[in-house]
Amino acid sequence: MENIFEDVSDYIVVINENKIIKFCNIKFAEKLNYKKEEVIDMNLEDDLLCNSKLFCNIKDSYKLLNENDNIYSFRSKEKGIKSFIGKVYKTKWNNEEAYLIRFNPNEYDDKDKNDNIINKLDRDLKLAVNKYERAEAKISVLLNTTTDLLGFIDKNGRIIRFSQEWHKCLGWTEDDLKNIAWQDLFHPDEKDEVIARARASKMNGNLCEGTNRCRCKNGEYKIIYWKAIYVYDLGIFVGSGSDITEEKKYESESKKV
Questions:
Q1: Which of 78, 81, 217, 257 has the smallest set of CB atoms within 10 Å of its CB?
Q2: pLDDT of residue 105
Q3: Which UniProt keywords apply (predicted)?
Q4: What is the pLDDT of residues 80-122, one digit of tens each?
């Protein structure tokens, strides 16, 4: 495979998930005034790239880097700057997860093209901000109008967004909820069962639900019917609950009659 990449006109670089260069063709190394063996095992981000923020998290960003042509600026051996347009592809290299970067060999120095790319990035950023703001507005309306115990839980188990019903139903304030782990809201006798259901839901992607005692701020417990699901794209759990304490009391009293 390495011989194939030596024959192409483009510059080719292959890095692993730690951004260590596992391969580059001779053309790329010579363009930066290095020998090929000097470049192998360099850290692409730390040792060569000037605009390293493009690779701040290659696992998460490679799709974006693949969809768009980006400008990559490199430090040559003499510390000069050489820029190229390139694209990233996910691949395997010697049975290891890797990323192949293909660069146009024409050195990038066209101001008009640069302005066009900057303008496109600016437009894309504005669209992303508008999309986020619209989604945020919808979430805010939902949190302020729902009669359920609605909450968003991050990967550390902290409730990061929640509806007003948490205070109305259980007495917890915003500051309280920001400083308490979600599992500590359940009765100690039932907490492990709820955690097991949440873990299973995260693994299989299915909705989990249950009826459990949840602690109020005053130390009392209410019976809550709840549902939750893990959203992988966001890395959070989204859950909702309803207070069914009175219904359960009525059921219990009816059985006694």
A1: 257
A2: 85
A3: Coiled coil, Kinase, Transferase
A4: 888 888 888 888 888 888 889 999 888 765 544 555 544 554 5
Q: Say which amino acid occupies 124.
A: D
Contacts of 100 (CB under 8 A, 6+ apart): 12, 13, 14, 88, 89, 90, 91, 93
More confident residue, 132 or 203: 203
Nearest Cα neighbor of 120 from 56, 71, 62 is: 71
Gap between the Cα atoms of 212 and 59, Å rounded: 38
Question: pLDDT averaged over the chain?
Answer: 80
User: Which of 179, 160, 172, 183 is CA-nearest to residue 216?
Assistant: 172
From residue 241, give the alpha-carbon distance in Å to each of 28, 161, 169, 211: 58, 14, 11, 9
- Which of 30, 16, 113 is CA-nearest to residue 71? 113
pLDDT above 80 for 40: yes
The DSSP call for residue 205 is: -
1, pLDDT greater than 80:
no
- Other beta carbons less than 10 A from residue 111's beta carbon: 7
Closest CA to 101 of 189, 19, 213, 179: 19
C-alpha span between 84 and 105 (Å, rounded): 7
